Amino acid sequence: MKPHKQIKDWGLGLTTPLIIAGPCSAETPEQIEQICKEMKEENMVPQLFRAGIWKPRTRPGSFEGVGEEGLKWMEIVRHQLNIPITTEVGNAAHVESALKHKVDVLWIGARTTVNPFAVQEIAEALRGVDIPVMIKNPMNPDLELWMGALERMYAVGIDKLAAIHRGFSDAYDKRYRNKPNWSMPIHLKREWTGMEVINDPSHIVGRRDGLLEVAQSAMNFGLDGLMIETHHNPDKAWSDAKQQVTPKRLKEIILSIDFKTPLENMKPDERLQDLRRAVDHLDDQLLDILQERFAVIDQIGNHKREHHLTVFQSDRWKEVMESRTQKGVKKHLSEKFMKELLYCIHEESVKRQEKQLREAEPVKK
Ligand code: PEP
Ligand code: MN
C-alpha cells in the first residue's frame, strides 16, 4: 500500500502539532466574525478553522445547523484570518455543497463513522477529488470501524488523511462525556504507519474544565494536534455550550501545554501517570473479556447438564492447554505463566459448571 499524505503534505501550509479551533456550530455571520476578531486580538489564530454547518444531534429538536448558507460566512474566516477551513460532512449532498464552497478540509463525525453505508456514500461523492479528510473515531470503541472509514476514503483516491480522537460513549462511566480509551488512538497509530491523530478534548471532556489535562495527555501519548471548540460567548452557544472556550481561554490552554516533550523525555511522574491510565484501561478490557468468557462457559455448562455430560473432559482440556500455551509463547509470554493462567481460568470454569449442575433442577432422562 502506498503511504498516505501526512498533514504537512496536504498543500495547505499546515504543520504538527496541528491546532484546529472554532465554534461547534456556525450560528450567524456576526458570530463567526466576532470569534475571528477575538482570535486575532488574542494572537491565537489556529492553523485550521472549524465550524459545524450540519449538526448531527443525538435527539431531534436541538439546533441542527444553519446549512449551506453557513459556508458563505466562512469567507469571513479567509478574509480576517487567512487560514483554511474545515467542516463536517455526513452525506453526499453535504460533500457537494462543501466542495462548491471550496472548504479546504472535510471531517467525518463520530455518528457517521459508525455507519459504513454513510461512509461509503461520502467516499463515492469524493472519488477523484483531491481534498484532505479527517475521520473522527466512531461512537463505540471499535478500531476496525475507524480503520474501515479511513480505508474507504483511501480506496477512492483520498490520500490526504488524518484521524480525530474524540472519545467513546460509555453507558456507565460519566467522568467524561466520551471516555478517551487512549489505547485506541495508539493502536490506530500502530496499525497504520504514519497515521496522524488529532485529539479533540472538547468532546471527550464535555466541560470547560479538564480540557487542559486531556490535551496534555494527548501530547504525552504522542498524538499530533488538538481540535478545541472555541466561541466568543460559550454560554450562549447554540450547541455544546458547556464545553466551548473563549479565544482568550484557548490561548491560556495552548500556552500551558508542554508540546515539546516526546514520550521518552517526559517528566517521570507525568509519564508514569499516563502509562498507568493506559494499564487501567487495558485491565478494564481484560475484565470485560473474562466476563464474556465466563458467560459462554455458563452456556456450555447448561448444555452439558441437558445432555448428561461430565463437566471435565480431558481431551478438550489438553487441546485448550496446548494450543493456548503455544499461542502465548509466540506472543512472548512465558510457558509457566501461560500454564498458571490457564489452570486458574479452567479451575474457575469447572467450578462454575459444577455449581450449575448441583443447583439446577435435575433434567429428566
Ligand atoms: C463536532 O465536532 O461538533 C461533533 C459533532 O463531533 P462528534 O462527531 O465528535 O460528536
Ligand atoms: Mn460539538
Automatic annotation (TrEMBL):
Transmembrane segments: none
Keywords attached to this entry: Transferase
InterPro entries assigned to the protein according to its UniProt record, in alphabetical order: Aldolase_TIM, Chorismate_II_sf, Class-I_DAHP_synthase, CM_dom_sf, CM_II_prokaryot, DAHP1/KDSA
Signal peptide (UniProt feature, chain positions): none
Entry-linked Pfam families: CM_2 (PF01817), DAHP_synth_1 (PF00793)
EC number(s) from the headed UniProt entry: 5.4.99.5
PROSITE patterns: CHORISMATE_MUT_2
Domain Chorismate mutase: from-to ranges: 266-357
Descriptive protein name: chorismate mutase
Organism: Algoriphagus confluentis
Taxonomic lineage: Bacteria, Pseudomonadati, Bacteroidota, Cytophagia, Cytophagales
